[in-house]
Amino acid sequence: MNAVADSLSKPETRAVTVFTWVLRILLAGVFLSGAVMKLTGAPMMIAEFQQVGLGDWFRYFTGALELVGGVAVLLPAVSPLGAALLLVVDLGACIAQVRVLHQDWIHTIVIGTLLVVLIYLQRARLSERFGRAA
After folding, report:
1. Between 97 and 35, where is the model more confident?
2. Dist. CA 46–CA 89, nearest whole Å
3. CA 54 to chain centre
């Protein structure tokens, strides 16, 4: 058996499992808190979404996506899919920050990077879900 095949057949180490859970909890906290702010009509969120110009429906839509993704990230069976959904939301936030809001966009890059790392760490689960070998 070659080294690559052998490394793919080994289960995750405990450190990787703990790190993955820490990322899941951290990212769920970030997006769930954002969802609550959007869905409850925090003045800061209302102002930002008015500036974007897509109306309250888009604030509610984004909040709902963050809520679904934030919960999904915590569920091992769908965690990589939740992270992928949140990556799309984060990409939209980055574009809005750069093109419309002209505010800090670095945090969206950091969060996006953490989401990519989470998806990468769970790539075997994602492959299993879609019936492909890791």
Report:
1. 35
2. 17
3. 22
Query: Could you report the per-residue pLDDT of 12-51, keeping only the tens digit for each?
Result: 788 999 999 999 999 999 999 999 999 999 999 999 999 8
* Res. 127 pLDDT band, cuts 50 70 90: confident
CA distance 71 to 79: 9
Contact 45, 59 (CB under 8 A): yes
Helix/strand/coil for 40: coil
Tell me the C-alpha distance between 59 and 48, whole Å.
9
* Cα separation of the two ends of the chain: 16
Counting Cα atoms < 13 Å in the Cβ hemisphere of 133 gives: 4
- Specify the higher pLDDT residue, 11 or 38: 38
In which element (H, E) is residue 24 found?
helix 14-39
What does the alpha-carbon distance between residue 27 and residue 127 come to, in Å, rounded to a whole number? Answer: 22
Q: For residue 118, what are its two tokens?
A: 């989470």
